[in-house]
Amino acid sequence: MKRYYITTPIYYVNDVPHIGHSYTTLAADTLARFKRLLGEKVFFLTGTDEHGQKIQKAAKSVNLTPQELADKVVENFKRLWKKLDITNDFFVRTTDDYHIKCVQEAFEYIYKKGDIYKGEYEGWYCIPCESYYSEIEIGEDKVCPVCGRKLDLVKEETYFFRLSAYEDKLLKFYEEHPDFVLPKTRYNEIVSFVKGGLKDLSITRTSFDWGIPVPFNDKHVIYVWFDALLNYVSAIGCRKGEFDEIWPADVHFVGKDILRFHAVYWPAFLMSLDLPLPKHVVAHGWWTVDGKKMSKSLGNVVDPNEMIQKYPRDAYRYFLLRNVPFGLDGDFSERELIERINSELVNDFGNLVNRSLTMMEKYADGLINMPISIEDDTLSKLAKETYSKILEHMDIFRFDEALIDIFEYVRAVNKYITEREPWTLNKEGKTAQLNEVLYNLYSALKFIAGITSPFLPDSSAKIMDMLGLNDIGSYTIDFFLDFYSVEQAKVKRAGMLFERIEQKEKKEEKKGYEKQKRISIDEFFNVDLRVAKVLEAENIEKSRKLIKLKIDVGEEKPRTLVAGLKEYYRPEELVGKYIVVVANLKPAKLMGIESNGMLLAAKDGEGLALLTVEKPVKPGAKIS
Ligand code: MSP
Fold it and tell me: Average pLDDT per run of 10 along the chain, which is 624 residues long?
């Protein structure tokens, strides 16, 4: 059976791991766990990129040899992955012997084929990015178009890879595989880059020596990107051993900054090596911190070690995957992380588990029994529907959407409890009905434990344990989807899944409120508040926060209103609601769309709730 092969980029060893690195690795780990849950055999790879001028320079600045630096820094990555419970099957290092051998073999293979030739190169080189850029890309200032740093003019004898010969083949491949690069916007970017014309690529260097020597000319070391990309092949046997069971990769996860290497150069190298191409290259966006680019000089680099010391690692993982549509840029803020912990993980998720188990213990001594017949299969049906939505979303690597699906289910189960009122059934001695409700709840928690296992592995393990089930590894999804697969169980409540976290700012906010300036009644009446009915709602794709609404405010034509609701509502949840808007606000442009009005919502440390009227009134009704 072909193993589902997932990779992360291999990380440079000149830096300590930060939130960006942990993001890619956590996403890859989540997919690996998800595929295992589906019963697939998985091979999940991560590792470190240890050659190149950048590493050589970094080592020199701390008086170490490059190998010593690599040996030291690699431990930071390995330690962090362990702390984050990353389930990689192998860790590749580009200074390992098997890798060096594989890169040299690949170089020779391509050389013999005639796709590598010797020449001379002069160009603008960015050492931090380990990449040449063309005059067109760098403009007049001669700074790197990717990282903005100063470029060096480098002239050297070099071996070229005949990339130009692969232009048409690549374009044909992209056309035949429209989901090779995801998300779609990135695919378009890559296609137009290649359509712009490809020049041959310099793939050796003579100006420094920290790299893999060209096998037949040791004056040259192999370009670090040629070296690094081959990790995906060297780590799985380099055409030997298990190689055919694993190759081609199913998903290479990368950041948007290194997409070109993976979606243009890499497939060209592979074509030249006569190897099949990967199925998907999935590019995610970049994290900023409190709205600013992360940098050592700003001192705002987020250390994942610190985060998981302060917050449960499940919460950190949840926040990264949930807060940003996979593919877009995101902003990291502890305030938002706490908001998500308090509202979703404590209120919705933790609370559901806790109240369910409390009732099971209180009303049934923790004993769960399958009823003779089950009248009410609401939760079972909903679980199946939820699962198919999750599958669709995971197919296109939308971790955020999959989590929204899961949490909608969690909320539905909470609602089920409220509506069925097990406490009343207990009081009235309706044992049969009570048992059925508790059994449904048990089965729903079992489904939740299974489906959350890739995303919230620690919480999932705790729930499994409370439900009297084995480790997640003993089951596949069928067990959880077969809703009533457990006939009898003894449950035991074992503490809360998540603890509420107090926000410091919240108290300060309260103080500020008391001190606020008072306004006159006239000032208040300047604001024209109206009821509006939401007719349509759609996500603004390019924005992380905004949703575009069409609202009826009782005027001739509906208005367009843009609001920052994306993180709290799905468009379909908004349609039909009677909301409250400020109708006499000057129009404003948001993401190029004119917004006419502003809606009202309440926000606390835990989430956001729209102001709606208690029962439908005519759109346009004045609020007085
Ligand atoms: N060594 C190369 C990859 C070679 S893969 C054959 C490299 N390493 S890196 O350590 O600089 O970056 C690794 C990954 O971290 C990249 O995918 C990059 O996009 C990601 N990130 C670095 N900073 C980031 C953020 N601020 N936010 C999100 N991811 C970012 O590139």
Answer: 97 94 98 98 98 95 97 98 98 98 98 97 88 83 88 91 98 98 96 97 94 97 98 98 97 97 98 98 94 85 96 98 94 94 96 98 98 96 98 97 98 97 97 97 98 98 98 96 97 95 64 67 86 94 88 94 89 92 91 92 81 90 90
Residue 53 lies in a domain: yes
- Asked whether residue 482 falls in the same domain as residue 593, the answer is no
Query: From atom 9 of ligand 1, which residue's Cα is the shortest distance away?
Result: 11
How far, in Å, are 82, 129, 199, 370, 461 from residue 361 at the CA level? 35, 58, 70, 16, 20
Question: Where is the domain boundary, 228, 263, 285?
Answer: 285
Query: In this structure, are residues 58 and 14 in contact, taking their beta carbons and an 8 Å threshold?
Result: yes
Asked if residue 417 and residue 276 are part of one domain, the reply reads no
Q: Is 258 in the pocket of ligand 1 (CB under 6 A)?
A: yes
Supply the range of the domain harboring residue 365: 333-490
Q: Out of 6, 7, 10, 11, give the residue to mutate to test ligand 1, the one with the largest number of ligand atoms within 8 Å of its CB.
A: 11
Say if 188 falls within a structural domain: yes
DSSP label at residue 150: B
* pTM higher than the cut 0.70: yes
In terms of domains, do 345 and 212 share one? Answer: no
Pocket test residue of 12, 53, 258, 321 for ligand 1, highest count of atoms within 8 A of CB: 258
Q: Is 67 exposed, middle or buried (0-12, 13-18, 19+ CB in 10 A)?
A: middle
Domain CATH code at residue 71: 3.40.50.620
Element (H, E) at 72: helix 66-83
Q: Is the CB of 294 under 6 A from ligand 1?
A: yes
